[in-house]
Amino acid sequence: MSAMRYTYLGPEGTFTEAALRTLPEAATRELVPMVSVPAALDAVRNGQAAAAFVPIENSVEGGVTATLDELASGEQLMIYREVLLPITFALLVRPGTELSDIKTVTGHPVAQPQVRNWLRGHLPDALWESAASNADGARLVQEGRFDAAFAGEFAAARYGLKPLVSEIHDAENAETRFVLVGRPARPSAPTGADKTSVVVWLGDDHPGALLELLQEFAVRGVNLMLIQSRPTGAGIGNYCFAADAEGHITDRRVGEALMGLKRICPKVRFLGSYPRAGVSPADTAALRPGTSDAEFISAADWLARIQDGRV
Amino acid sequence: MSAMRYTYLGPEGTFTEAALRTLPEAATRELVPMVSVPAALDAVRNGQAAAAFVPIENSVEGGVTATLDELASGEQLMIYREVLLPITFALLVRPGTELSDIKTVTGHPVAQPQVRNWLRGHLPDALWESAASNADGARLVQEGRFDAAFAGEFAAARYGLKPLVSEIHDAENAETRFVLVGRPARPSAPTGADKTSVVVWLGDDHPGALLELLQEFAVRGVNLMLIQSRPTGAGIGNYCFAADAEGHITDRRVGEALMGLKRICPKVRFLGSYPRAGVSPADTAALRPGTSDAEFISAADWLARIQDGRV
Amino acid sequence: MSAMRYTYLGPEGTFTEAALRTLPEAATRELVPMVSVPAALDAVRNGQAAAAFVPIENSVEGGVTATLDELASGEQLMIYREVLLPITFALLVRPGTELSDIKTVTGHPVAQPQVRNWLRGHLPDALWESAASNADGARLVQEGRFDAAFAGEFAAARYGLKPLVSEIHDAENAETRFVLVGRPARPSAPTGADKTSVVVWLGDDHPGALLELLQEFAVRGVNLMLIQSRPTGAGIGNYCFAADAEGHITDRRVGEALMGLKRICPKVRFLGSYPRAGVSPADTAALRPGTSDAEFISAADWLARIQDGRV
Amino acid sequence: MSAMRYTYLGPEGTFTEAALRTLPEAATRELVPMVSVPAALDAVRNGQAAAAFVPIENSVEGGVTATLDELASGEQLMIYREVLLPITFALLVRPGTELSDIKTVTGHPVAQPQVRNWLRGHLPDALWESAASNADGARLVQEGRFDAAFAGEFAAARYGLKPLVSEIHDAENAETRFVLVGRPARPSAPTGADKTSVVVWLGDDHPGALLELLQEFAVRGVNLMLIQSRPTGAGIGNYCFAADAEGHITDRRVGEALMGLKRICPKVRFLGSYPRAGVSPADTAALRPGTSDAEFISAADWLARIQDGRV
């Protein structure tokens, strides 16, 4: 039954699956790997799945453009949840392989910059060839096509391999952000540590349009955590911007900022309000004075009074 | 009956009375001159008059500080109307006086800078002494204390004088703005060419507070026509600001800007929304895209929809 | 000899003279009272005096418009020094007069709002009539025209009066700022707690011009301590702005901000850089990061290097 | 000799080579294909080549992250030139192959979204498998591994293929921007239609830092043509920004804006000032008043005069 089915960017054994399994409800859902981000999302759009789980941002490689572009175009979807997963690699080999035996290594192209230094130090002569995914690389090692694959340690068992080295990561703090995406719905209730994602198209390319966009947020005291340009497909120099703002769409300051964007931009797409992964309400930045819901409500009362001649 | 009584800054025969009489309803009101702006306004505050008519801004001398300060403090009042009056002076003398006879001239101190060049050219040796008002100057000429007075030409008859020279004004475009002030009430309906006046106190003197104040207006596309600092009385360096904004408090962009001020400033006093004198709706500047009421309403509908999960 | 002569806004015995005498060099100058601010400044312009000492800002009444307007127009002058003087009044009477004898009081119109509450409490029935100056009021009491005058206590001896009550001031912190004005010269060296005064005319009245003016200061981290609109004389709605900025014109951030103003405004008049009265360098606000002279110089070096192909 | 050698992102037969050959000097250089962007740039860094030619931005896929990240890190390089190339694909097949024979197609992953719609319409059942480059896809067709490859038409001859269909491109205006990158040097002289590229790191992640960055440009009237966030590698939420600004580093407004960035940002990397491809000086936007070199120079003269006491 589709309401119990979550698709995800496959194959099995990747970091995406590992991240998905950190969600409590994953235990009671049918988890279906798909060959691509568009395929995972299309399953949601056409009703075959309740939600899709895909990577959206990588601390080393940046935004996952396939996901950003899919969310920005086509039938509208909404982000329900986010998951942050630290990314460290294990070097998986067939049982019996020693480091000195390794002549060829593989892994997803995104893995390469994250293990490059390690390779230079430990396997300077090994040849790298990219695989379609980290899990696929593991499979190719199982089949004997490569001597070793970089993948999540959790992938070893599935492919009959063993981790020769663990915790490999050139960059400290390497992590990937994943999102659970479904059909548009009423956003879940605010938790006090929320994030709101939008895609905003700028008007006829007038200089200063991005500044105006940022000021709509700034004047209401809404902090941006991410702003990322994406081409609109209308030629070099035409961009839309994916932005993540602190706060929930039911927060007055966020709602007013979004209405401001809606008025000045030709197109705004709301991608969801959802809890920030790994952040509790106690960890969020203090609101700028004058931007709490209570202050918005009090100001609205004042306006109603003076419009009515009562002061 | 106080409901039919308008006070004004007297005495009779000044520009203030002349400006007041341009209001259609002045013909059916009891017009009572008062000795000072505070006296004229206090009559409204204590219920002895329905409204007071006082000067608020002079194109040569600047804001009329007595009026600004009275409106900013004490029991709250509201501007109902404004009147713009071109200011040109006549040189009033007793019948028979020739220009060559004039050794002493008088007038309100505010008149002096507006006739200084004329005096230098035509009566370089005449001694100037200030009077309490232009009308008072005329009375002193009538009594023989001075040879000539600068006043509005309309004051001649009342004091048995004749205008020896008319249309005297050093500055082109000299004009004074007057306001009709009453007790707080529901503002009159918007006309399409309206003005909204407020007084805003800035927070604890942090640099940039004025910039933030202006941005609350700018981000909603609300133009300011006047911004004038006034001391708060709490020592050098402590100011409040009187601001006139284009638009009516029932315009969404104006209302949202005022709510923004209300949230970030320790105190905001609404002084009224009223028709702009001498400006028809056709003469007003085009709204910045995204700031019309229709666009505010459409954005609010959009927000309600996405908050409800409908896209 | 004119180089030793300072004019000041007279008459003798006013707060202006008292403030002037706080300057060390006043002891060795010929101090000449003048009948008006323009007269005091004109003596400098035509070479009869080395400098003029005039009030420029009053914490109760606001900017002294005669001074602001004189500095903004005519032949250019420059502020050399400022003096802050706390303002408290004494009630001066002829010897033998008791409080219960007082039926009439006088003083400068500016004094009235500063003693209004005191009068209401102690002499509710006394009639107030304004004098041309506080000192003039004292003289009129001496001559028997009034029973009492509000003036500086220092004026008592000069007019054979005695202070019946001292330290009268409705507003706490009432003070007046005076400036010593001379012909344009190289500003005195920075002290670390300086102020720079300018008058800025805005362009063709486009909305947002004031915001742009403030941003020229803000983007270079230059705090404004005062911004005051003055009519340009070209009709209601046409203003120039007198602004006091923290810092000295030889500070890079101040110089760059002024050049920015010079480029975007039709007219900028520099009124001087001078030490802030009553503020030591230790009391000044910390500079915003990136705005010190050292950082400006370092950035200029960097620019020169990269323009030259060295990185 | 390395001074005559240009590396480029290979292999031969790609759009990159085609774009490189539009440069006049390409005819007299030794053009060496490299396996990756880092390899092409490293050849410049280590002195084996005078310059490298690599893609930097794609109107469909966005910034070429390998190039952006290589330019932002490591030993500093500089952009000398840019080239814009319209991107349309040909479907290359072995001679004799008909459309109805095609069961498998290949091409670079970036090509896929640009031909997806065409495939859906003309070869709905063909299986897509990605190749390492468009040229590599052509080679694989030559070797018989696939029936058809999407590549530039210019690649057909090299691999013994023929273009079965030409001018395939889902998106109108698809184009790619390439840059010629060398070691830091004095930038070429301004042409009147120039572009300046920088990478800017924001400070300790304070909200509003991006807004401040944009204001440094805006207040000097410098338009931004591109702003693109890239992860710094220090974890999700840490970004630097690659920005392209209109103008040349020797333009005063650009220089002052860059110095402003240098002061407020922990790190700024200058990537070069170079002529805008396809834009003549006549096509550039008018400068905002107050931002021309003449106005900067005039304001600097004014500042020097008033600092010197001459007005």
What does this entry show, briefly?
Chains A, B, C, D: Residues 198-273 form the ACT domain. Chain A is an alpha/beta fold. The first copy, chain A, has helices at residues 15-20, 37-45, 65-72, 112-122, 134-142, 155-158, 209-218, 252-264, 293-307, and strands spanning 5-9, 30-34, 51-58, 62-63, 78-86, 89-93, 104-107, 127-130, 148-151, 162-168, 175-182, 194-201, 224-231, 239-246, 267-275.
Description:
Four copies of one chain form a homotetramer. The mean pLDDT of chain A is 91. Chain A contains nine helices and 15 strands. In chain A, strands 1, 2, 3, 4, 5 and 11 form a six-stranded mixed β-sheet that branches. The first copy, chain A, has a five-stranded mixed β-sheet with strand order 8-7-9-6-10. The first copy, chain A, has three domains: 1-86 and 174-184, Periplasmic binding protein-like II (D-Maltodextrin-Binding Protein, domain 2, 3-Layer(aba) Sandwich), CATH 3.40.190.10; 89-167, D-Maltodextrin-Binding Protein, domain 2, CATH 3.40.190.10; 186-311, Alpha-Beta Plaits. Helix content of chain A is 27%, strand content 30%. The A-D interface holds A 57-63, 65, 69, 84, 113, 130, 171-175, 177, 207-208, 210-211, 214-215, 218, 223-231, 233-239, 246, 285 and D 57-63, 65, 69, 84, 113, 132, 171-175, 177, 207-208, 210-211, 214-215, 218, 223-231, 233-239, 246, 285. Chains A, B, C, D: Keywords: Amino-acid biosynthesis, Aromatic amino acid biosynthesis, Lyase, Phenylalanine biosynthesis.
Give the helices and strands, then pairings.
4 copies of one chain form a homotetramer.
Chain A: E1 5-9, H1 15-20, E2 30-34, H2 37-45, E3 51-58, E4 62-63, H3 65-72, E5 78-86, E6 89-93, E7 104-107, H4 112-122, E8 127-130, H5 134-142, E9 148-151, H6 155-158, E10 162-168, E11 175-182, E12 194-201, H7 209-218, E13 224-231, E14 239-246, H8 252-264, E15 267-275, H9 293-307
Parallel strand pairs in A: 1-2, 1-3, 7-8, 7-9
Antiparallel strand pairs in A: 3-4, 3-11, 5-11, 6-9, 6-10, 12-14, 12-15, 13-14
Helix pairs in contact in A: 7-8
